[in-house]
Amino acid sequence: MKVYKIGGNVVDDQAALETFCREFASLDGPRVLVHGGGVAASRVQELMGIRPVKIQGRRVTDPETLKVVTGVYAGLCNKNVVALLQSFGCNAIGLSGCDGNVICATRRPPIEIEGQMVDFGAVGDVTAASVNTELLEAFCGMGLVPVLSAINHDGKGKLLNTNADTVASSVAAALGAELVVCFEKNGVLRDKDDEGSVIAEIDPGLFERLKKEGIVAEGMIPKLENAFLCLRNGASGVTIRNSSGLDNGIGTVIKL
Amino acid sequence: MKVYKIGGNVVDDQAALETFCREFASLDGPRVLVHGGGVAASRVQELMGIRPVKIQGRRVTDPETLKVVTGVYAGLCNKNVVALLQSFGCNAIGLSGCDGNVICATRRPPIEIEGQMVDFGAVGDVTAASVNTELLEAFCGMGLVPVLSAINHDGKGKLLNTNADTVASSVAAALGAELVVCFEKNGVLRDKDDEGSVIAEIDPGLFERLKKEGIVAEGMIPKLENAFLCLRNGASGVTIRNSSGLDNGIGTVIKL
User: Which of the ends of chain B has fewer CB neighbours closer than 10 A, N or C?
Assistant: First the structure.
């Protein structure tokens, strides 16, 4: 079993998305796709006069923002990805956490950040234990390919917004699957401007050194921390790679 | 097998929706729910500065409108309904036509209306033959309750907007199921201001007389035409009734 993750930059770029979907559809074997959509969500928020608020890279989800991300992630992005996959012959089925209770999340309580209490709003925390693996395995057994948005529910009628990387790593850990994180770069790069400088393998020791040297910085830090957590929680492997050329073997393998 | 349909007025009224979902969750047996969402879609369009355009009650779906209705119907409305049903113990699964290829629609070609060619845009025509009954039956067999939005796909990567009444009647006809059309009134009323004046049964002969007398008018005409079509195409029965009090036996039964 493999779990693929594509981020908001790929979902929002129709050409990159079509390339990914064509290649993903041609793969064999049971697999799950998890997608983001943050780029489109921020654009829709601005169209509607809502200023996106992020703290430590996480979107604060007030009631109006929840409506936008539910529409954009679970509706617009999810159904576009599924319709594209169907057009390439992949029998995809779009799911949010409420669907068949596939992921039941816990609303994040207000937490202290830099001395201030921060309420992220309708944000849902998810772990491997939140994932209904029986349903995902049953669907894969029927030849269906689950495509998960990062909108989940709390089991009490409320929808919650979860980070898509967290959903992907929780699903991979729960299934004991390999996680393939796909984005717009070829992997973790030694030189961010040189797509040829992919670091083939990163373990926790190298991660610390790369952080100290400033080679791994900003958004790549939580991505790698998430990858280590995913391996510790039961995933069979993690690779970070480009969303195109899925069979070219290029990418960064994460090891414990 | 029963197919229930709720319209945009119920979906948009949180109290009415919760009442419906609580009652629907307590029903036994295999069933499918189809929902609208037009009230919310028009509101979002206006927030985004798009003027909703309807011709003969059907929404003209230009590319921007398609994005809105996909977000609102397949995302916001569908996931809210599913999360509510889950909270009442009903194992609902939200689906749009692309999901598992459950409904494959045909884009409506431009048609002549009152001497003018009208292009409805991304509007999908659906018949009983468009419905993947095997998948719906398999899901019901797994104890899942499919909840369908009216967003479908063309099998070539494009999403299409279909009238929710048409989706519901096509699904009921394809499954040979009973269709229960639920809305904010108690049934087809002899006096539109008297909820006690429900007409118990309507056949095509009575329908013609009621139209002549002006008792059946406006939006009720396509609803009844749709009901007769649904019966002719294989549904086992059609009832038009209130979305609350699902077990009270009040409503209008449609007969051929």
Answer: C
Give the whole-angstrom CA distance, residue B158 versus residue A202: 40
Q: What is the DSSP letter of A128?
A: G
Cβ B70–A72 below 8 Å, yes or no?
A: no
Q: How many residues does chain B have?
A: 256
- Which of B70, B86, B142 is the closest to A101 by Cβ? B86
Residue A77 has phi, psi (to 5 degrees) of -70, -50
How far apart are the CA of B91 and the nearest CA of chain A, in angstroms? Answer: 6
Residues of chain A contacting residue B138, judged by C-beta atoms under 8 Å apart: 142
Reading chain B (256 residues) residue by residue, the pLDDT tens digits are: 999 999 989 999 999 999 999 999 999 999 999 999 989 999 999 888 889 898 877 889 999 999 999 999 999 999 999 999 999 999 999 999 999 999 999 999 999 998 999 999 999 999 999 999 999 999 999 999 999 999 999 999 999 999 999 999 999 999 999 999 999 999 999 998 999 999 999 999 999 999 999 999 888 998 999 999 999 999 999 999 999 999 999 999 999 9
Give the C-alpha separation, B186 to B196, whole Å.
8
Query: Which of B252, B59, B39, B66 lies closest to B153, judged by CA?
Result: B66
Q: Which chain B residue's Cα is nearest to A73?
A: B75
Q: Which of A136, A61, A59 is nearest to A99 (CA)?
A: A136
Rounded CA separation A250/A243 (Å): 11
Count chain A–chain B contacts defined by CB atoms under 8 A. Answer: 121
Residue labelled with tokens 């699902």: B246
> Under an 8 A CB cutoff, do B82 and A76 touch?
no
Interatomic CA distance for residues A210 and A201, integer angstroms: 12
Helix, strand, coil percentages, rounded to 5, for chain A:
40, 25, 35
Closest to B36 in 3D by CA, of B15, B67, B8, B9: B8
Q: In angstroms, rounded to a whole number, what is the distance separating the alpha carbons of residues B149 and B172?
A: 15
